[in-house]
Each structure stands twice: as structure tokens, then as C-alpha cells.
Design goal:
homodimer, alpha/beta, six-stranded mixed beta sheet, four-stranded antiparallel beta sheet, 13 strands, 24% strand, disordered N terminus
Chain lengths: 246, 246
């Protein structure tokens, strides 16, 4: 692994340490792991977007060639297109070499909660299609146990919204219907709704995931278990990496 | 259980024994199990539609009162509406007393393959919301092992069509993209596609279902396992019932 110098990057904004950390994590992951010739999954969210932007910069500078990106959301697709990153779909490129994406929580086992941005259905499709998953986060996302700080985002097909809410409540969750800032129901790229299920610390994430996957109205669960990611964590004191080998 | 006389029903059409059996199964299931006051799931397909029609007849005749139906497909909804059956959604009625639906295969354990009509996503939502599931079939649907005569219908979100097809093929299935009679891609009520996965006899249906449910691009699997249905089977020699107690 060759680390590229980062001193040439624009300095992170001084005002917001968390924003600076997100940017550092996203950019550094690209510099460490993205290489010419790769088929890339392009993540969604306020940290992953810095990875997409760094890829765009390197493509524009000519130092990253022959790459193709598959975006995980319409927002990422629009930004990647503007940046001039060559794009494809999984119809054209069904297997990816590397995906850089964010997460809302990272456990000591490197299991993840994702879906704060509502894109976890396509994010999981991309994660399952990729050889290596690189997760970029700031230190606030590293937790002792999944569920400690976040709800599990559960994407539900509209007709099943009430029975699936009742199922989640029967499991002990406090369930919040996700809304837009304007207060309207949040609608995913696939036309579904999201129930944010607050469980608190989750003792058996695998059992919970299996139970939710078995529900016919549940289209996507924001529990990403067993993906064996490399996790790039940026904090005020620098950047560290977590992986199964470390 | 009180059996109502069936001699008052219109005679099944004489020309097609299988059609006659489907009709007999659907109508008889209603006469045996549907009662006034019930919240009913209304199934989809060429056998279940006879149950819906019989419910409509009984409602029109005034012998079945205070029922409400939740349809499993737009086709069933349209027919039920025309028949004058009071309809509701799962928003209004999240728990159902009884659902009468068809199946494409019934195993000795009363596990099912469904989805030949493409409605298995909503059919499974309804089946999970119902207290008792009554399955109506003709004898040709009773098999020794799931997969013996049918493909497993797998509903897939459009962007993941190619990776999920490759996943099914890696499991050993021959995969057919479902099309309309006109040859266009079949699109489900939820806007997804269907891959018909021919496995042949399936030794471990539970393992297969769990593997498919874990795929992010898979929205619905036509394996209905552990629903403990009452199965009403009509054949040339009469009607028999299969249930866990029998």
C-alpha cells in the first residue's frame, strides 16, 4: 500500500472539527485504496461525498484513469456526473472492485448501521456487489454496540407500513416515521417509506436482521453485518484504521 | 367445523376438469371457513378468484355480513370492488382473521411456492398479517418436494437485476426473466421485476429462503414456509383438506 501525500489537498475547514474529520476520512480513503482501472461503488452521505469529490479531482487531474463508478443514490449520481467521473449501472458492471461509503455506527466487530441518508437499499446492493468495502467515518460513529446511538432504518413498502410498524414495536422498538424537513413522509428512491426503529443497544444483531428480512413488507434493513470492511476513522487527533486484521 | 351444503352452488363447468377443481376449491373454502364479521385477506390467481367471487355472492345475498376485505393485488381489488365486497387497506385493518389464497406448489410439510401470478410480495404481507391462511388448489399443485414442478419467483428491484440473476445462477438455478405475453419485461405492482429461478427439487427450502432474503436486491421470494395453512385440494374425485393436524 502506497500512501499518497495529502499535503496538496485544500485544508479542511477550520470551523467545524467533525466536518473536517469527515472530509479527511473520505479523501484519505480514496488516496489509500482507489487505483486506476478500478470499478468503484460510490457511496452516499456527508462523509462519502468527500471520497466522491476526491475521485473526481484525481480523474480531472489525470492521475486516476480507466475507472468507472456505480453510484448508490441519485444525489451521488448527480454529483459524480458533474465531477466527470465515468458512470455505469450494475447491468453493465455487476461486480465492483472497491466501494467507499459512510456509516452511522461501527461496532467493534465492524458491523454497521447505515441508512441515515435513506439510501441503504442501494448501498447494500452495491456493498454485496463489491470485492472490498471501505467505510469512512468520523470518531463519533464508532460505538461499543450497534443501536447505542442510532435507530435502525427499516425501508418498508407503503401498503405494509402499519403492520411492519406494529411488528417493530412488538420487538420492543420505539418507531419513528421518517419525514422530510418539511414534515412530509420521506420517500426513498424506490418509492418506499422509512421507519426508524430505536432499539437501544442490540444484543443479537444477526437475529434481529434475520427476523426483519423475513418480513414481507420490509424492503431494506440498515444493519450491514459481516461485510468485513476496512474502516477509516478520522478524529481530532488524526486518522486510524479498523479492519478484521487489526 | 360446520360443513355447509354445496349442492346449491352452480355446477362447475363440465369442459375443463382442472378449471372445475379450481372453482370447487375456492368456493368450498369460503363456505367452510368464511363467517360474518371477519376481516378477510383476498387472494390472487385463477383459483383464489373463485373464493373472492363466492364471498361477493354471499355478501350480495345478505348471508355474509359485516366483512371487510384486503386485496392482494390490483386485479383482485378491481374484481372485489365490482362484486360489492367492502374493502380496506392494512392502514385501516392491520390484522386479518382469515385469508383465502392460491398456491403454485404445496409440499407435504404444507410449505408453499407462490408468485406465479406475480403478486407474492403483497400476498406474503397479507399472509403474515392474517390469523389463519387457507390455501385453495387443484390436485396438480400438491408435490412431494418444493421446486419439483415450479420455479421460485424472485422479485428483484430493477437496479439489482443482473447481480441477483448471477447470485441465483451461482446457487445452481436456471433463471428466466419473466415477461408479459407480449414479450415485454413483467413489472410488478411495486415496480419491480421477477426472476423465475428453476432449482429443481429443493432440499433445504429454509436455507435457500434465508440466503435470498439476505440479498439486498431481492424484494420478495415466492417461498412461503411455516405458515401452517389449511389446504383445500380439489380433484376429479372430490375435495380433501390438508392441515398440520391431519
Amino acid at each position: 500500500m502506497t500512501e499518497q501525500p495529502t499535503g496538496t489537498q485544500p485544508a479542511p475547514p477550520a470551523g467545524d472539527p467533525q466536518l473536517a474529520a469527515k472530509r479527511r476520512a473520505g479523501e484519505l480513503a480514496v488516496e489509500r485504496y482507489v487505483r486506476s482501472g478500478m470499478r468503484l461503488g460510490l457511496g452516499t452521505g456527508s462523509t462519502a461525498i468527500w471520497a466522491v469529490r476526491r475521485i473526481g479531482q484525481l480523474v480531472a487531474a489525470g492521475s486516476l484513469t480507466d475507472v468507472v463508478g456505480v453510484p448508490t443514490s441519485p444525489v451521488t449520481e448527480a454529483e459524480a456526473r458533474e465531477l466527470g467521473i465515468p458512470l455505469a449501472t450494475l447491468d453493465e458492471v455487476p461486480r465492483l472492485d472497491l466501494t467507499v461509503d459512510g456509516a452511522d455506527e461501527v461496532s467493534p466487530q465492524l458491523d454497521l448501521i447505515k441508512g441515515g441518508g435513506g439510501a441503504h437499499l442501494r448501498e447494500k446492493i452495491i456493498a454485496q456487489a463489491t470485492e472490498k468495502l471501505v467505510i469512512v467515518v468520523d470518531e463519533s460513529k464508532v460505538v461499543d454496540c450497534l443501536g447505542a446511538t442510532r435507530a435502525v432504518p427499516v425501508e418498508v413498502v407503503r401498503p405494509a407500513l402499519r403492520p411492519e410498524r406494529e411488528f417493530l414495536e412488538a420487538l420492543g422498538a420505539r418507531v419513528v416515521d421518517r419525514t422530510t424537513p418539511a414534515g412530509d413522509p420521506y420517500v426513498t428512491a424506490e418509492g418506499n417509506r422509512i421507519l426508524d426503529a430505536w432499539f437501544g443497544p442490540i444484543a443479537d444483531a444477526r437475529g434481529l436482521l434475520a427476523a426483519l428480512e423475513d418480513r414481507a413488507g420490509v424492503m431494506a434493513v440498515g444493519l450491514f453485518l459481516g461485510f468485513d470492511p476496512i474502516v477509516v476513522v478520522a478524529g481530532p487527533d488524526g486518522v486510524r484504521e479498523l479492519s478484521a486484521g487489526s
